[in-house]
Amino acid sequence: SLLFEPPPVRWPDPIIPKLIHQSWRDGGFPKGLFNWRWQQGLVDLNEGWKLVKWTDESSRALIAKEYAWFLPTYDAYPSYIQRSDAARYFIIYHHGGVYADLDIECSRPFAPVLADHRAVFSYKVGTNMSRGLVNALFASEARHPLWQTVFTLLTNRSTLGAAAATHVDVVRSTGPGLLREALLQLRGAGAHDADD
User: Fold this and answer.
1) pLDDT digits (tens, 9 = 90+) for 87-98
2) In this prediction, what percent of the chain has a pLDDT beyond 90?
């Protein structure tokens, strides 16, 4: 008897580039803080995707070369987290792809979730202020219109988080609070493809 073997599932090439961006202060991997297997899992589960490792130096270099208008704001942030937040937005705007914090563990390939979408964001369930849309894992095509809204908010809120005295200052000035506000503004402006 003949056995039928179904062909492997082939997801269409995503609109979002097959790039996984991660960042850390220097070129080393902080093994004391994160499990290196999480990073390897991102690569293993997403065949054909390229892992791009960013450092403080390479992130700042991108902003200095391509977005010099923002460099004074970037350099003025008192908190490393604020610079890290801002850098990830410019990285994805410039290159497209997936941004994943080092503590993200991947259990399934990205392709089925990203197929036919121009931008995809993650959501954290919880009871504190950190719940909701997060900036630890997100994906976008390069130059998606959302990022212009993000850049406007980063510039307008740069004095709000100038002291970075509290976690809330950081969340609102550069973190998930800012990203949520950008999405709300984009949707409110009637951008028909904000859901994509």
Assistant:
1) 999 999 999 999
2) 62
- Average pLDDT score, the chain: 87
Give dist(CA 113, CA 89) in Å, integer.
20
Angle at 20 between CA 154 and CA 79, to 5 degrees: 35
Q: Over the Cα atoms of the chain, what is R_g?
A: 18
How far is the C-alpha of 172 from the C-alpha of 183, rounded, in Å? 14
Distance CA 142, CA 128 (A): 32
DSSP H helical ranges for 67-175: 71-76, 80-95, 111-114, 146-156, 167-173
More confident residue, 171 or 62: 62
Chain segment 47-75, per-residue pLDDT in tens: 999 999 999 999 999 999 999 999 999 99
Pairing of strands 50-54, 97-100: unpaired
Cα(74)–Cα(169) distance, integer angstroms: 15
Contact 87, 62 (CB under 8 A): yes
Lookup: tokens for 161? 């988080």
Hey, how many other C-beta atoms are within 10 angstroms of the C-beta on 55? 15
